[in-house]
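Case 419 in the screening queue. Each case pairs one protein sequence with one candidate compound; here the compound is uridine-diphosphate-N-acetylglucosamine. For every case the pipeline is the same: read the inputs, emit a complex structure as tokens, and attach any notable structural observations.

Predict complex for case 419.
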Amino acid sequence: MQGFVIEGVDRLQGEITVQGSKNAALPIIAGCLLVPGEVVLKSCPALSDVYSSMKILSCLGGRCRLLGDTLTVDCTALSNDHIPDRLMRLMRSSSLYLGACVGRMGRCTLSYPGGCELGARPIDLHLLALEKMGVCFKEEHGVIECTTPKGLHGAQISLSFPSVGATENVMLAAALAKGETVIYNSAREPEIIDLARFLRACGAKITGEGTSIVRISGVSRLSPCEYEIMSDRIVAATYLCAAALAGGELMLKNTGANELRPVIDTLCEAGCDIYSFSDRVYISRKRPLKAVGTVRTMPYPGFPTDAQPLITAVLSRAKGVSVVVENIFENRFRLNPELVRMGANIKTEGRIAVIEGTAALYGARVMASDLRAGAALAAAAVSAQGITELGNIEYIDRGYERLEASLTSIGAKIKRTSI
Ligand code: UD1
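Case 419 output:
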């Protein structure tokens, strides 16, 4: 098992350029399947989930090459419509190949996706929506056979919850479907906007992204393009929270404040000073942290569930009592017992955590239970007194391009090791 050994420091200082967004890159890479010809994606983060996407595309007959942060994908000649279980299990986003495969080939066989264990994470909304578009599903022994006997067609789809993945899956399927698809109660996350921009750059007809009604008019063919992936707002939130925990000053480059608004507002309420100018965000934390009003995770533009473990770590050191309510994923509180090992005072009941801030956290042996919990523990450990051994950091590698290098560049003391 890989781990980080982290020695706490009492301030961070410097600047970090924020990587390209994982959650934008994954659906865009799946979208490359719809395009015959060579697509060039810039600012593509080098992460294990991106490598998993490349494996899936290669298995379907696509050709992929990641050089630096430029991913080139050519899905001109596809040779297979079956994604084996071992590839589907690599990540949650493998579910997006449902929409992309039926969009391009009209059929596929695959199984249920894997990914971080944040709770049940069903894909019922994806399946219901695609069924309305003419996809027939036959499931046997965990393998789902997807066909479109009457062709893929547009449909009016009302999502009972603004699911990010279901919205993306429908957008991918609808780009080449016959007729118009309208998604009501669609997710409004910035990553949805990035997917729409990418598909539009390839010739798709999409309007309304970023609002709760997205319209897609199917076209007969998409063409290759060059596209720059947006920066990662959750990675940006991670560094802001690390600076809030340790204190000091940090300038983030290649990020915008708009998509980070709820995180920035909460950190300011906790006593940080944050300023933004065009694509930069600056944070300074000189005073002790103080408790904030209730933080509730909500679909965008509410407080992002991915940043909840990070803010929980920050509030564990904020004087007073703070309350965090997790409304999206029931298992996002799995870091709380690990923070408690580090001296935090957190009571967790179902979807609610009550945090009584302590002046200091202490180094301990802790485990990452998923990607963002791992990042939050790393951020907490950077500011803790003494040495923390953080295990299961393979989770962190799914979403961060060498987190330890970025944090070390601003004064943290982290070593990657086998533990
Ligand atoms: C995406 C993000 C993830 C983020 C989440 C919410 C990626 C790769 N992942 O995940 O980082 O935390 O959005 O912002 O982009 N649900 C159902 N049935 C479905 C689909 C979803 O019940 O068919 C439920 C989920 O269990 C969850 C909620 O809806 O409780 C939100 O899920 P969703 O928005 O779909 O998240 P993901 O796309 O999986």
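Case 419 observations:
- Residues 233-246 form the longest helix (14 residues).
- The first strand starts at residue 2 and ends at 7.
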